[in-house]
Amino acid sequence: MATTTLTPTFQLATVSSIPTLHAFDARTCTWQSYRDRISFYFQANRIHTDQDKKALFLWSVGDTTYHLLESLISPRSLTAEDTRFTDLIKLLDTHYDATKNIMTSTYDFYSCYQKSGQTFAEWKAELCEKLRHCGFTTSALKNKPQDRALRDMYVIGIKSQKIRQALLKEQDPDLETTEKIIQLAERLEEDVRHFGNPINHADYTVAKLHNHQPKRHKQQHTPSFVKNEYQPCETCGSIKHLRSKCKY
């Protein structure tokens, strides 16, 4: 009797049979996590070509991210054939690059205190999420823990809000650069105080002199007979005129 060998067949996934990929929401998920899930999604559904990945990604990513990509890729078009899925991923990688926010993320991490009613587990989860973006293992100072500690403390503890804002704009400065920024900002503030106070004092002095000037002006033009107001005329005895004006 002849035996029949069954050959397994595989059916490629079609768009209608693929589970929907949810849209990306930066408020609830990091781009890095969403990007990793996209990779698993395509792998699980045997989606390999760049054009298929691009089509499914743009169809699912959501209006906010779609419009963002339109802006990032301009003047090119998302629908252009030479626009690849890998190009879109690189654009979003650059836009959501956590390393460029190391200073801000570190400041947020050390400023994250336990909130009223927040359990320890919830607080820990929040800290761990913020910790991911601090770059403790990828920063330029990853092998210089003392420099990193000083730099972070400068940002957290400095009194001047303007200097802190200047530091937070930096990507990942070394300790020397951070200290130069602080010292330069302090010198500028000192120059403003040095050149600002004399000007204010001079303005005050001028105003003060100006206010007193009319009184001195009146005194200088006071008629001379006022000084003799209570000296009687030697001829008639009247106190209403001077002797030289007397008609007698």
From TrEMBL:
Entry superkingdom: Eukaryota
This protein's name: Uncharacterized protein
